[in-house]
Structures are given as C-alpha cells and as structure tokens.
Write the structure tokens for this entry.
Amino acid sequence: MVALSVKMYVVENILGKKHQTMASPAAVNCSGAARRILLLPTTTTRPATRSFPGRLSAVTSRPITTLPSTPRTKSKSTPKTQPSTTPPPQPLQTRRTYHSTTHPPPPSPFTQAETTLLTTALTSHIPTHGFTLPSLTLAARDLSLLDISPSFLGPSPVARLIHFHLYTTRTTLPSLASQHSDLLSGLSVSEKIELLTWLRLKQNEPIIQHWQQALAVMAQPFQVPVAVRELAMLADEIYYLAGDKSVDPSWYTKRAALSGIYAAAELFMTTDKSEGFQETRRFLRRRLQEAEELGGAVRSVGEWVGFTASAGVNVLRSKGVRI
Amino acid sequence: MASPRRLLRTARQLTSTKTPLLTSQFPRHVSTTPSPPSPSPSPPLPPKNLKPLTESQREMLSSFLRVNQAGELAATLIYTAQTPPILACEPHLRPLMKHMYDQEADHLRVFNSLIAKHRVRPTALYPLWSVLATGLGWSTAVMGKEAAMACTEAVETEIGGHYNTQIRELLKMVSEWEAEGYDVGEEFTELISTLRRIRDEELEHLDHAVEHDAQKAEPHWLLTGVIRAGCRGAIWVSERV
C-alpha cells in the first residue's frame, strides 16, 4: 500500500546527540531542517509532478546511534538525489480561493510522506488506539520508520492527525457523492444538502468512539483556527456539491447555518447508540428544517419591507414629488 | 489621472482591431491590445499541459472576480436608482438608460455565474455596496441630468482603468505560462475576452455620458473627484473583503 520511497538521513551533527538521549518518540521536537532530514522524498526531479516510485525504503529498527551519516536505501531502482534538494515548504493552504475547472488542483497541504504515515495511522490504529500519539508511533513502526518520525508532523502530531482526518473526509466527499449519484439525482437542493451532510457524518462511523476525544483536541485554542476553517470549507463543499448557486449575502448565512448544524449533529452522533445512527439523522433533519423555516421567515420579512418601500416611493412619485 | 476623453480615445484605438483571441497570439510584452493574427495557426492539442495555479494566482483571481461582481452590482443599482428621476424630467433618455442598464445587468449575470462556477466568496460588504450605490445613483439623479451623467463618467472612467489593470495582469500570467511551455486553456482565454468586451462596453457608457453633457455639471471637478475617489476606495476594499 505504500507508494512512497523515503530516505532517512540522520546527520549526526544535527540529530545524533538527541537520538542518543531520546527517551520517547515525542521527546524530540524537530526543527524545520531536522524535519526535512528525517523524511526526504527520493524523486525531486520535477517538482510539478512529484511522484514517489518504488517501495518504502526500509529503515530498520536498529539502534539509532549506529545509523551512518550517509544516505541509505534498500530500493536500488530509485534514482539517487542530491541530499541538498529539499522539498518546497508546503503552505497550509486551506483557504477557499479561486477554483479552476480545468487546471490541476493545488497540492495537498500534507506532504506525501505525511500522507502515508497519517493514512496508515488512520486506517490501522485509530479504531483501537484512538487519536493518540501511540497510534502514530505504531503507524511509523508499520512503515519501518523510526519511532521518532511522528514528531516531523509539527508541534502537535495528534492535532495534525485529526486535521488529516477532517481533510481527507472532506476531499473524498465529491467521489462519495458521485457514488451516490442515483440517490442524489432528482432531489431538491435542500434534500441534497441533507443527504450530503449525512454521508459526511457516516464517514465518522469507524472512529466514532474516539471522536469526542478528537473534538476536545480540536477545541484547544491553538487548534481552533484549523478546525473552524475545515468546518467552513466542509459547508462550502456541501453547498457546492448540492449545486447551490447563490452569490449574495445568503452565501454567508447558508454556510454559517450549515456549519453550526453539522457541528451539533457531529456531537450528537458521538453519544448516539441507535441502530445505524438513525437518531442522528432525525436530529439533522429537524435542525435543517428549522434553519429553512427561519430563513424563509427572514426572506418573507425582507420581501415585505422591500415591496412596501418601493410602493411608498411610487405613490410619492405619482403625487408629483420629484424623487 | 487621464482625462476621460483621452482614455476614450485610447480605448477606441485598443478596440479598433477586432481579432479572434488565440493564446498563441498573445504578445510577449504585456499589453491589453490584441495583437494582429500570426500567420501560423496553432492547432488545439487535445491533452492540454496546464500549469497548476499558485496560491497567489488563485488569490488574485478570487479578488478580481469578487471586485468585479461587486462593481457590476453597484453599477446596476446606480442605473436603477438614476432612471426614474432622470426620466421624469428628460423622457427622451429612456432608450439610453435602458441600454446602459441592460448591459450592466448582463455584466452582473456574467460575474455571478463566474463566481458560482469558480467557487469564489462574494464580497461580505454586499449590503453596504447596495445601499451606497443606490444612494449615489439617486442623489446624483435628483441633482439633475448633468450630475447623473458626471457620476456615470466618473464611475466608468475608474472602472475602465480597473478592467485594463486586470487584463494586463492576466495577460502577464498567461504569457508567463507560454514562456514556460505550458498551454493556456479556454478558461483563461475566455475570461480575458469577457473582460475585454465588458471593459469596452463600460467605456462606451463613458462616451455616452460625455455626449450627454456630463462635463456641464457644476461643479464637475468636485463631483467626479469625489466619486472617483469613492470608487477607488470601494475597489480596494472589495478586493480584500
């Protein structure tokens, strides 16, 4: 499953001392340079199409202090790169900007190496160990990486793991929607939104027993911006997939309402013990129904005010007032 | 600050050569003028080699579409508010006002669909621009036909220059792609030709306004100065918020 070849360069003058004294995987908080050294993609010939052929080069679980300072790889087929070439820094681009219909999509905010590690953790270890550091460490062991590897995920590897879950579930929503295109076809926009939100909630099913813990992590002050941005992008994704074309201020109110409803339903789902989470679905439907009723009431009031104002102006004009 | 007349003349020169827009014909130097057709026709390649848009390019395109939608919204509202007071004293202007309004409404429709298609966030100050544009249109129309035309002149002068800046930026981006050996898809050739068409129509409105005594407004310098400054401020804000 691993379509990634990773070289480990452990340069003694940067990491050697830390490795010797390392007690736990999270003990070392890597700097940017060290992070690049820990996991370096082997093919960097064309940055535009960065691919990772071959297998994961085996970095064995020998004592770390004996690791040589020269690049080591078992996969002979992978071309050798200069150790000086480092991957371009990946910006945390999760903002909603111009979406091109023809050009290739922008790169993922997660590097290929991060994606491999996080995917392994998510599929193999989260259901048993939850969103914790041991899950990441076990995933690193599965990939024959050092136990320290999760620390290249940044200051909070667990939050990064949760962000990865949010990101992948959101970006797989379009393919999920096309799988269910027979269900979606013929529905009104609000029905589509209900179904898409439900499909997204169902994606939490395998990890639902750990989701409260993850929500608690993402509610920490440093993680709130990431969580809120992901939530906003999810609401935008759902409205886009539902085919909503509004480009007036309702663009904001619709997305804000759906974000709130989704967050509430997600929380409800963590305590839902009903068969197939049917209670969650009913909860979701009730909330969406309420939002629609409220939106309809506001719209009606706005229409009435607009009509009355223009009628008043027209009456004055008919009386000869020059306005 | 170019005078409207001079800007008009430039616009006429820019649009005098009607050539089909082909990516291979974009001049290497950055200009908003379509170049004369090159002798070698470029056959369209089925597998297009398109470069991924960078973060800054996507930011730029987002802000372009957002500000254009806000601008066209304001323009339609200005004309909507201007029409009844002007027609009350100058009924013969009905066809002109209708023509200008229809074109602006079409521009707004174009940008609304582009914003929805490219998933760009509309401006958050939508209600504010609606109120301000209606107020501007109505107050200038109440001041008289000349003031209303001066308002059109000021707004369209700013908008014409603004569209030219955007076209210049897009042509720069596209010519960089071509220089690097990438293809330029229809998405951007169409966007550029749409912007060119809309810019020409806006400058046509400027022409109409000047023909209908915009310069006779009193005090012309103050009216146009204030409105143009307001336009620039609104453009600056809409690009960001």
Observations:
- Chain A is about 55% helix and 0% strand.
